[in-house]
Structure formats: C-alpha cells, structure tokens
C-alpha cells in the first residue's frame, strides 16, 4: 500500500505539467470503474446533450466491451492511453473514493458522491482507522466541486470529510433524474399485468473498518415462508446482495424470489419496483422520489449502531415500518401493499428535507456547474 501511495503521489506531481483540454472530460466511478451511479448518468448526459468529449475509465472487461458496443469512448484505467487521456483532460469526474486523484493536477476535479449519509462516514465513523484517514487526508487533494442534494446533506459531508463549503454544489443526484424523465416518456399502465415487485437491498457490514462478507442465512431470510407470503400477495422479491455477500436460493425451489446479477445497476429498475426493503442503505433516500412504500429490516440494529454509528436516530428517521427479526419481516410484507400504516406523509416530508430539487434536471445542473468553473 505504501508503494501505491508513493507512485500515485509521483504521478500526481507529474500531472501538473500536462496541458489540459477543457473539452475533454474523463469519468469513472468506484475502484473498478463499473458503469453505474451518478458518474454513469452525467456521462450519458454529456454524450447526448453537449459537444464535450466524454471518456470512461474502467478496469472491467465487461464494462469496456459494453461501452465500446454502444460507441462510447472508453479506455482501461491503467493503460497508457487511459493514463494519457486522463493527464490531458480538463475535468475528471468520479462518484467514489478511488485513486483517480493521482492524475487530477491542474484540472477540475469533481466528486459526485454516491448517497446521502445515514450511517457515519470518514472521520465520523466509530470503526474508522484514524491513522489511515489522516494519511489519506494529507495526500489526496480536495475536490474542486462536491455534489450534494441539500443544505442538511452539506453539513454531513463537511463533518465526515472536511469538505469546504465553497466547493459544495447543491444540484441533486443525476441518478435520480430518470424517476421524473421516465414518467414523462412512458405509460406506466404497461406494467399493470406484471407481478408486484419488491426489491431487497441489504447493506454490507464492516468491523474495525474492514468490510465483511456476512452471508444471508435462514435466520435472516426464511425463504419458504417468504415465498408463501409472496404468493398470497401476488408479488415477487428481487434480492441484490452486496458482492461480498452470498445467498443460496438454488436448492430451495423458489418461484417468486430471484437473485439479481451483482453488476445490476439498481437505478435502472428502482422506478419499476413497487416497494423497497433495506436496512441501512442510503438508497432509501433516493427511493423517496417514487413515493412507493419502504420496509426497513435492521435485524442487527444495536450492533451496527455500536460498530458504525448513525447521523440520526434510526427509528425516528426512517419513513416506513421496521422489522427486527425474520418473523416480523414476513408479517410486515403485508403492509407494503395497503394492509398496514400509511407512511406517505412521512416519506414526502423527508424527501423535501433531503432534496432541494425534484425535477429530473440534476445532470443538467451538474454540467452547468462544471462549465461555469472551467470557463469562468
């Protein structure tokens, strides 16, 4: 790890000496450059609505082939071409913490981020490795623009990462634009004949700052009981475990429970799901744009709060019913479809609190903010 930081610092210093092309914008997401999240949606917007040259960087062959097949510019992150294009770009855009900063000298560095914090981040984490955080803060440059959704979210990012208030731009998250655009373009009645769909997104656990691949078991998900309840509700359950989690459903003879591919971009299907189940994922904030019901299943709430910590009182904040064990999980499925308390007012209130904009134009605002900074 030490050598990786040294080489990154050397490249970062070199990057200041390259002339930059302000019409060339480089995009990536997580450490692998998967094609998803806020970066994906701004990348697509730039390709379809501007004359800027947008390039995606990835280390995944499937992502590389997908973008090539769609005639979009893409390079492998550590290829000579990828590094050279990065060193020439006038703007580097990411949605996660990764090492793209190493080529960001003398250009605009934009952090789109990937969610409103519910669980504590960065300096605020109870399980954070403080020495590693201090070293990282000393080495990694601050973004010139940090995207946020509201004044309240701003304060959380400032607490977690020390983001300068002058760098924060409240634009909304580009990945949420489709909730509004799709409603304008599509006839939702086309989905009336399909089963009601519930999406379950469990959160990865971590201990001591290290992510753990804690498998989902019968203790948390009694699959046969859930299958029976789904049949009564005429519904199906889509489960997307974290890549470090596993769940065996192959041997259970299930018709109404399906596992999604780990590479699935959930934001391409959220608006077509009738309900969401999660525990601590910030995706529930985004799902508020659909006004569909949410069930919260924090089966290890006390432990998770002690290990990681929250910015809010969990039980007071979440706008939906809470199941704390597998029995409650099964019984609360009824409440997702009009057989339980109505939490619409609470969802609407929280949405207005956490999102300044609900108009489907966040990508447009992000690009406008970048252009303002580049061409000022």
Written account of the structure:
The longest helix is centred in the first third of the chain and has 14 residues. This protein has two domains: 187 residues, 3-Layer(aba) Sandwich (Rossmann fold); 168 residues, CDP-glycerol glycerophosphotransferase, C-terminal domain (Rossmann fold, 3-Layer(aba) Sandwich). The strands form three sheets. It has a seven-stranded parallel sheet, sandwiched between helices. A six-stranded parallel sheet has the order 12-11-8-13-14-15. The chain has a two-stranded antiparallel sheet with strand order 9-10. By secondary structure, the chain is of the alpha/beta class. β13, α9 and β14 form a beta-alpha-beta unit. It is globular and about 65 Å long. α2 crosses α14. 35% of the residues lie in helices and 17% in strands.
Topology of helices and strands:
Layout: H1 2-15, E1 21-27, H2 37-49, E2 53-58, H3 61-69, E3 73-76, H4 80-88, E4 89-94, E5 108-111, H5 130-139, E6 145-148, H6 151-161, E7 168-170, H7 177-185, E8 196-201, E9 205-207, E10 210-212, H8 223-233, E11 235-239, E12 257-259, E13 275-278, H9 283-287, E14 294-296, H10 301-307, H11 314-317, E15 321-322, H12 326-332, H13 344-354, H14 362-374
Parallel strand pairs: 1-2, 1-4, 2-3, 4-5, 5-6, 6-7, 8-11, 8-13, 11-12, 13-14, 14-15
Antiparallel strand pairs: 9-10
Helix pairs in contact: 2-14
In short:
With 376 residues, the protein is of the alpha/beta class. It has 2 domains: 2-172 and 359-374, Rossmann fold, CATH 3.40.50; 187-354, CDP-glycerol glycerophosphotransferase, C-terminal domain (Rossmann fold), CATH 3.40.50. The protein has 14 helices and 15 strands.
């Amino acid at each position: 790890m030490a050598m990786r930081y040294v080489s990154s610092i050397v490249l970062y210093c070199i990057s200041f000496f390259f002339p930059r092309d302000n019409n060339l914008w480089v995009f990536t997401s997580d450490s692998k450059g998967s094609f998803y999240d806020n970066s994906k949606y701004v990348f697509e917007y730039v390709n379809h609505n501007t004359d800027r040259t947008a390039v995606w960087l990835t280390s995944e062959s499937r992502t590389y082939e997908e973008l090539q097949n769609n005639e979009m510019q893409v390079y492998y992150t550590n290829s000579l071409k990828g590094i050279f294009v990065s060193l020439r770009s006038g703007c580097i855009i990411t949605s996660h913490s990764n090492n793209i900063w190493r080529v960001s000298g003398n250009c605009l560095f934009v952090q789109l981020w990937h969610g409103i914090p519910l669980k504590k981040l960065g300096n605020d984490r109870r399980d954070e490795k403080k020495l590693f955080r201090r070293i990282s803060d000393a080495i990694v440059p601050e973004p010139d623009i940090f995207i946020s959704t509201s004044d309240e979210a701003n304060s959380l990012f400032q607490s977690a990462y020390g983001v300068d208030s002058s760098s924060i731009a409240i634009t909304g998250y580009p990945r949420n634009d489709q909730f509004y655009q799709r409603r304008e373009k599509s006839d939702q009645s086309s989905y009336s004949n399909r089963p009601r769909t519930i999406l379950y997104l469990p959160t990865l656990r971590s201990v001591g700052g290290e992510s753990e691949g804690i498998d989902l078991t019968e203790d948390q998900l009694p699959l046969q009981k859930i299958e029976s309840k789904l049949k009564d509700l005429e519904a199906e359950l889509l489960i997307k475990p974290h890549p470090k989690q596993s769940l065996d459903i192959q041997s259970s003879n299930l018709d109404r429970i399906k596992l999604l591919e780990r590479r699935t971009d959930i934001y391409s299907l959220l608006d077509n799901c009738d309900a969401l189940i999660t525990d601590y994922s910030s995706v529930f904030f985004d799902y508020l744009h659909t006004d569909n019901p949410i069930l919260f299943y924090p089966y290890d709430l006390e432990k998770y709060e002690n290990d990681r910590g929250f910015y809010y009182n969990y039980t007071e904040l979440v706008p939906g019913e809470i199941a704390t064990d597998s029995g409650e999980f099964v019984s609360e499925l009824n409440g997702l479809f009009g057989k339980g308390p109505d939490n619409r007012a609470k969802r609407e209130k929280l949405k207005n609190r956490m999102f300044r904009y609900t108009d489907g134009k966040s990508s447009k605002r992000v690009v406008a903010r970048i252009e303002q900074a580049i061409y000022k």
